[in-house]
Amino acid sequence: MIKQDILEKQAKIAFLSIGSNLGNRINYIEKAKSKLVEKDIIIISSSSYYETVSWPDPRHPKFYNIVLKIKTILDKKELLQRCKEIEKFLGRKKTPRNFPRECDIDILDFDNKLSHKEVDLPHPRMHTRNFVLLPLFEIDKNWRHPVSKQHIKTLIFELSNSDISSIKQI
């Protein structure tokens, strides 16, 4: 039993996406990063900021997004709980889906494993999102999708021309 406890507490590598399209977007994202560190999550690397139009309603304010590569001893459920606590701390309220928000933190990939219990991993729409794939490529050029096993470059090449041209690295 002790051996299992030790294995469960080994550090895992995960990727998080953080976005904001309300208020001082960079400030919210930087505060989210600080709160992650306060909660014993090690940030291995952080992408540049990327700006995209709000989807599905481009009339909403534009988003700033980053992707983080992290190391944690938390399990996926605990990590999700910490992310939700940080969102709430930064002012996120219950709103309709895809509505403007101060901070949105998504777990993209957790230890390159599949999960449909408690936390749906990898993130079910990550492979179609320019604001996830381009910053992820920036920090891990060899990443492969845990389900399709496709290389990150392949996923980027599958994005539409408008998805590629509509994102701006800041």
What is the highest CATH level, the class? Alpha Beta
Radius of gyration: 16 Å
Terminal CA distance reads 49 Å
Low-confidence stretches: none
Proportion of residues in helical segments: 25-40%
Main sheet attributes: strand count, strand direction, barrel closure: 6 strands, antiparallel
Strand residue percentage = 15-25%
Q: H/E order of the elements?
A: HEHEEEHEHHHE
Overall SS class? alpha+beta
CATH fold name: Alpha-Beta Plaits
Tell me what you see in this structure.
With 170 residues, this protein is of the alpha+beta class. The protein has a single domain (2-169), classed as Alpha-Beta Plaits. The protein is built from 6 helices and 6 strands. It has helices at 2-8, 25-38, 76-89, 130-139, 152-157, 161-165, and strands at 12-20, 42-46, 50-52, 63-72, 104-110, 168-169. Strands 1, 2, 3, 4, 5 and 6 form a 6-stranded antiparallel β-sheet that branches. The radius of gyration is 16 Å and the shape is globular.
